[in-house]
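Anyone up for a design puzzle?
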């Protein structure tokens, strides 16, 4: 049995909004992640933003830096159980 975390509530819309707020294209985010040692293609970024791909915690940590965020709160804005 795998112990991986699975996304059950999509944060995709928030990821897209944060990327656009920072004036970045998906390919630019992908390139910055690659420089940080996290290989994520532009296609995977698109799938994450569509809620069709589970976001790894390492990617969230890196996106927090790329998007110059003080906390993780903006990833979860507007989400409810």
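Challenge accepted. My sequence:
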């Amino acid at each position: 049995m795998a112990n991986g975390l699975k996304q059950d509530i999509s944060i995709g819309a928030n990821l897209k909004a944060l990327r656009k707020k920072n004036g970045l294209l998906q390919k630019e985010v992908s390139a910055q992640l690659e420089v940080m040692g996290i290989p994520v293609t532009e296609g995977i970024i698109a799938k994450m933003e569509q809620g069709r791909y589970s976001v790894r915690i390492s990617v969230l940590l890196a996106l927090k830096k790329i998007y110059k965020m003080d906390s993780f709160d903006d990833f979860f804005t507007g989400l409810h159980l």
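A detail worth pointing out: The chain is about 45% helix and 0% strand.
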